[in-house]
C-alpha cells in the first residue's frame, strides 16, 4: 500500500476513517468486515464480452458512463453507445449489451463570424496575405478551415457528456456531443434503435452573438472590423467549445395564466469556450428541442487557456449551492459563482474561490466533484479531485460557521506516465486514474479529524487482459464495473502493427457486496442498479441456484417492510434461476451444418424415403452436435459439479421438470402480488380524482371485480377502497367494448382482453386499459406493454402512464 497524502501544513490523524454503517445483515456484514480487514484489497475479474470498436478513439476522456447504464465512446467516425441490460430472458452468462451509434455529421461546421460574403472575402484575403504570420496562422488553424482542403478532414468527436437521469421524453439521459470541428449538439435516443439530434447549440449561439454584434453586453465598446485578423480570431475563439458539463436537475417556478405558480424541472449545461467565457444554457424538462431552451447566460471566467470544467453542487442546511470549477492548461483551478435566476432554493458564492493558484505548467486534464459526508464534522462536504500531469490534486470544501474551509494537497507517486483518464464513484468517493501503460490506481478517501488522506492500490490490467495500452476508463453508476478502452501492448519488445480498439469490462465488487448494496439500497429501483443486478445474475447463472443467505435476507426484508421493491428483486432472482435451470438447445438453429450431406438416388424426394430413416439421421446429427457443444463449452469440473441432469439421464428428467414448474409457480405468484399492489394504486388514483358516476379510460369496475374474484386474497385495505369506489360509481359499470365488433370486453385476465368473438387485445400494465391501437409502448426488457397518452387524458392519468414497468422498473418506449 503506498503512502497516503495529507493536508498541506497539517498532520494526519493516526486513526483510519470511520467504517460505513452496518448493512443490517449478519452474513453480509461479515463479508464487508473481511474486505475491510484485508486493507481494501481489490481483485479485478474480467467480464465478457469485449466490444471491438470499428474506428479509433478520438478526443480527451473518450469514455463516459451514464446514470441509465449507457457507455459512450468517442471515435473518429461516431459515438459508439453500449447499453448494459440485465436481461431476464437470456440464459447466457455474458454481459448483455445493446449497441447503437451517433454518427458524425457529414458537413463541416463553419462558425458564424459575420455575413457569408464578407467572411469569404476575409478568408481569401488572409490566405493570400504577404505577412507569413497571418497567412500561415490562418491556413494551419483548423478552426478557420474545418473542411481541410489538402489537410485531412476533421471528423470524429472531441468530447461527450451525459445529462442526469430524467431529462428526455422517456425520462432517460441526454447526450451532449462535441465534434472535432467544434459543433456542439444534443441527442436523444427516443425509440432505442436510432439517435435523434434535438438541437445544434453552436448554430444557436452563433446567431445570438451575430445579433449582439459579438458583444457580451450592451456596455461593451465596439471592437474592430472582421477584416482585422485579431478580430477574426476573437470571434472564432469566443464560440469554440473546449468542454461542456451538465448540472443536476433543479426546480424552477413557472407562472400559469391564472397567476398560479407550478414547479418545473430544469437542467443546466455549462459550455467552456476557448476565450475563457462560459455559456450556461438552461433547459426545461423534458427537453424536446429548441423550444425547451429557457435562457443562455455568458460568464467571464478570467482564466488563461482554460482546459476543463465541472459543476460544484453543495447542499448545506437544506440549501443548495452551485458553482463552476474551471481548470487551466497552465495549472490554476478556481470556482466561479453562477447566478441562477428563478431557481427555487439555489444559492451561489459571492466571489470566486481559488483552489490552486500556482502557474506551475501542469495542465489540468480532468476534474471530478464528489459530494461526501464528513464523519468527524457531522456535515456534508465536497471533494474536488483534478488530474494534473502524473499527479492528483485534491481539495476538500467544507462550510462551517466560520465560512468556507478549503484543504488541498497533491497525491504523488501514482503513475510514472501522465494520467490519461480519471473517473470517480460518487457513491463512496473512490477515484480511479489510469496511464497509457495499462496501470490503474484506486484511491479511497479516508477522513481524518482535520481533512482527509488517501489509501491507494495498483490494478495491473496486464494481469487481467494481457499486455495492453489504455486510452480511457469509466466506472459504472453503482461502482460494480470499470470500463476500459484498450489496444494491444508491446509483445517481445515490439509494438503491434495494427491497433484494435476494444471496450473491456472488469468487476470492482464481489457478488456479496452487490447483493448487500441491493438489499440496503435507498434508491429502491432495479433499473438504476443494473450493474449490481448483473453481478447477481452472473453468479446465479454460474451456480444454478440462489444463495441461501440471500434468500433469507430478502425474505426478512419482505416481512419487515413489504416494499414492492423487494418483491421485484425476488421476481428478478426467480426469473434468473428459471433461466439457469433451462436446458441449452443441442443445436443452434441459424448455424449451417459444415458436413456435406451426400444424397443417394434412393433418398431423393422423387424416390421417397421412409420416416424412420429421416428420424434416425436427425437423431444422429443432434447427438453429434450436442457432444461437440459439450466438449467445447464445458470443463470436466463443471460437468462433475453440475446438479442438472444430462439429456441421457432419463430418471432425472421428472425432478428437473418439477423444479421448473415450482419456480414458474413462484414467478406467477410474485407477478400476481405486484399486479394487485399496482391495481390498488390505480384505484386510489381513480378515487381521488373522479366525481360521482364519472367515466374514465380506466376499467375501474373490471379491476375491482378482478381483485375481489380470488377468495384467497384477503386485503382489508383493498376491500375498503373498492367499497368506496363502488359507492361513488353508483351501480354504473362502464365496460370496455371491442373496437372491431362492439362486444363487451370482460376483465378476466390482467395481460389481455378477449371479446366473445375471439378478438384479443393486450392490456396496458399501467392503467389496465385494453390497447386497441396498432401503436403502443413496451418496457425495456419486453415485460409488458403500455398505451400512449392522449390529449384527452387528465393529468393524473398522464402521470400514471409516465411510470416505469411494475415488474422490472425499466422505462417504457
Describe the structure.
With 813 residues, the protein is of the alpha+beta class. Helices cover 26% and strands 29% of the residues. It contains 16 helices and 36 strands. The strands form ten sheets. Strands 10, 11, 12, 13 and 14 form a five-stranded antiparallel beta sheet that branches. The longest helix is centred in the C-terminal third of the chain and has 37 residues, at 653-689. The radius of gyration is 31 Å and the shape is globular. 37% of the residues are buried. Residues 730-780 form the Transcription factor IIIC putative zinc-finger domain. Residues 619-628 have a biased composition (Polar residues). This is General transcription factor IIIC subunit 4. InterPro entries: DUF5921, GTF3C4, TFIIIC_delta_N, TFIIIC_Znf, WD40_repeat_dom_sf. It holds the Pfam family zf-TFIIIC.
Q: Pairing-aware structural class of the strands and helices?
A: alpha+beta
Q: What's the shape?
A: globular
Beta-strand portion reads: 25-35%
Q: Which segments are poorly predicted (pLDDT under 50) over 5 or more consecutive residues?
A: 1-39, 597-651
Number of strands: 36
Provide the gyration radius in Å.
Answer: 31 Å
* Helix fraction bin: 25-40%
Mean pLDDT: 84
Q: How far apart are the first and last residues' alpha carbons, in Å?
A: 48 Å
The largest β sheet comes out as: 5 strands, antiparallel
Query: What is the helix tally?
Result: 16
Amino acid at each position: 500500500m503506498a503512502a497516503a497524502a495529507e493536508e498541506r501544513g497539517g498532520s494526519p490523524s493516526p486513526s483510519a476513517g470511520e467504517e460505513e454503517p452496518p448493512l443490517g445483515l449478519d452474513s453480509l456484514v461479515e463479508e464487508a468486515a473481511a474486505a475491510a480487514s484485508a486493507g481494501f484489497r481489490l481483485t479485478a475479474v474480467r467480464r465478457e464480452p469485449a466490444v471491438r470498436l470499428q474506428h479509433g478513439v478520438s478526443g480527451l476522456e473518450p469514455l463516459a458512463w451514464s446514470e441509465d447504464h449507457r457507455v459512450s465512446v468517442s471515435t473518429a467516425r461516431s459515438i459508439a453507445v453500449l447499453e448494459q441490460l440485465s436481461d431476464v430472458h437470456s440464459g447466457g452468462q455474458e454481459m448483455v449489451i445493446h449497441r447503437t451509434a451517433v454518427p458524425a455529421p457529414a458537413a463541416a461546421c463553419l462558425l458564424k463570424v459575420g455575413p457569408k460574403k464578407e467572411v469569404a472575402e476575409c478568408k481569401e484575403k488572409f490566405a493570400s496575405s504577404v505577412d507569413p504570420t497571418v497567412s500561415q496562422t490562418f491556413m494551419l488553424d483548423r478552426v478557420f478551415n474545418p473542411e481541410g482542403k489538402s489537410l485531412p478532414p476533421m471528423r470524429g468527436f472531441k468530447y461527450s457528456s451525459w445529462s442526469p437521469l430524467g431529462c428526455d421524453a422517456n425520462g432517460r439521459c441526454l447526450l451532449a456531443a462535441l465534434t472535432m470541428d467544434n459543433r456542439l449538439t444534443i441527442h436523444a435516443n427516443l425509440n432505442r434503435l436510432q439517435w435523434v439530434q434535438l438541437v445544434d447549440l453552436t448554430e444557436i449561439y452563433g446567431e445570438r452573438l451575430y445579433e449582439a454584434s459579438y458583444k457580451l453586453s450592451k456596455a461593451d465598446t465596439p471592437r474592430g472590423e472582421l477584416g482585422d485578423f485579431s478580430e477574426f480570431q476573437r470571434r472564432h475563439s469566443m464560440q469554440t467549445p473546449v468542454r461542456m458539463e451538465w448540472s443536476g436537475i433543479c426546480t424552477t417556478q413557472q407562472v400559469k395564466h391564472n397567476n398560479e405558480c407550478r414547479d418545473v424541472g430544469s437542467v443546466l449545461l455549462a459550455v467552456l469556450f476557448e476565450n475563457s467565457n462560459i455559456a450556461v444554457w438552461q433547459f426545461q424538462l423534458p427537453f424536446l428541442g429548441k423550444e425547451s431552451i429557457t435562457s443562455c447566460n455568458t460568464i467571464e471566467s478570467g482564466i488563461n487557456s482554460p482546459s476543463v470544467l465541472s459543476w460544484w453542487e453543495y447542499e448545506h442546511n437544506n440549501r443548495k449551492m452551485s458553482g463552476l470549477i474551471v481548470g487551466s492548461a497552465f495549472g490554476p483551478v478556481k470556482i466561479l459563482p453562477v447566478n441562477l435566476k428563478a431557481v427555487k432554493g439555489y444559492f451561489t458564492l459571492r466571489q470566486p474561490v481559488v483552489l490552486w493558484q500556482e502557474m506551475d505548467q501542469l495542465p489540468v486534464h480532468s476534474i471530478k466533484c464528489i459530494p461526501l459526508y464528513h464523519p468527524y464534522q457531522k456535515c456534508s462536504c465536497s471533494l474536488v479531485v483534478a488530474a494534473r500531469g502524473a499527479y492528483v490534486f485534491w481539495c476538500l470544501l467544507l462550510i462551517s460557521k466560520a465560512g468556507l474551509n478549503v484543504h488541498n494537497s497533491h497525491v504523488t507517486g501514482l503513475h510514472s506516465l501522465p494520467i490519461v483518464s480519471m473517473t470517480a464513484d460518487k457513491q463512496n468517493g473512490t477515484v480511479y486514474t489510469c496511464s497509457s501503460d495499462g496501470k490503474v490506481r484506486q484511491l479511497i478517501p479516508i477522513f481524518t479529524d482535520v481533512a482527509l488522506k488517501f489509501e491507494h492500490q495498483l490494478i495491473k490490467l496486464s494481469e487481467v487482459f494481457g499486455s495492453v495500452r489504455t486510452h480511457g476508463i469509466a466506472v459504472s453508476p453503482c461502482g460494480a464495473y470499470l470500463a476500459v478502452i484498450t489496444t494491444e501492448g508491446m509483445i517481445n519488445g515490439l509494438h503491434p502493427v495494427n491497433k484494435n480498439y476494444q471496450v473491456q469490462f472488469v468487476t470492482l465488487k464481489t457478488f456479496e457486496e452487490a447483493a448487500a448494496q441491493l438489499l440496503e439500497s435507498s434508491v429502491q429501483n432495479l433499473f438504476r442498479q443494473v450493474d449490481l443486478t448483473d453481478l447477481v445474475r452472473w453468479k446465479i447463472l454460474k451456480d444454478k441456484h440462489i444463495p441461501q443467505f440471500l434468500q433469507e435476507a430478502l425474505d426478512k426484508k419482505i416481512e419487515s417492510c413489504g416494499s414492492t421493491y423487494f418483491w421485484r428483486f425476488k421476481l428478478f432472482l426467480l426469473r434468473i434461476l428459471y433461466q439457469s435451470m433451462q436446458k441449452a438447445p443441442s443445436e443452434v438453429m441459424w448455424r449451417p451444418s459444415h458436413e456435406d450431406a451426400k444424397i443417394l438416388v434412393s433418398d431423393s424426394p422423387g424416390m421417397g424415403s421412409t420416416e424412420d430413416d429421416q428420424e434416425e439421421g436427425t437423431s444422429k446429427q443432434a447427438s453429434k452436435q450436442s457432444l461437440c457443444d459439450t466438449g467445447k463449452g464445458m470443463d470436466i469440473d463443471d460437468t462433475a459439479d453440475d446438479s442438472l441432469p444430462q439429456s441421457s439421464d432419463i430418471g432425472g428428467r421428472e425432478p428437473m421438470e418439477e423444479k421448473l414448474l415450482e419456480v414458474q409457480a413462484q414467478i406467477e405468484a410474485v407477478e400476481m402480488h405486484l399486479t394487485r399492489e399496482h391495481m390498488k394504486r390505480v384505484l386510489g388514483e381513480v378515487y381521488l380524482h373522479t366525481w360521482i358516476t364519472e367515466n374514465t379510460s380506466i376499467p375501474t369496475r373490471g379491476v375491482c371485480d378482478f381483485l375481489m374474484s380470488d377468495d384467497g386474497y384477503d386485503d382489508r385495505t383493498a376491500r375498503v377502497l373498492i367499497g368506496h369506489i363502488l359507492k361513488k360509481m353508483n351501480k354504473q359499470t362502464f365496460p370496455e367494448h371491442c373496437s372491431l365488433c362492439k362486444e363487451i370486453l370482460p376483465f378476466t385476465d390482467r395481460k389481455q382482453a378477449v371479446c366473445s368473438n375471439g378478438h384479443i387485445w393486450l392490456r396496458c400494465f399501467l392503467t389496465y386499459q385494453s390497447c386497441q391501437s396498432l401503436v403502443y409502448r413496451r418496457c425495456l426488457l419486453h415485460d409488458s406493454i403500455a398505451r400512449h397518452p392522449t390529449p384527452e387524458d387528465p393529468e393524473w392519468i398522464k402521470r400514471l402512464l409516465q411510470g416505469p414497468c411494475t415488474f422490472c422498473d425499466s422505462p417504457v418506449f
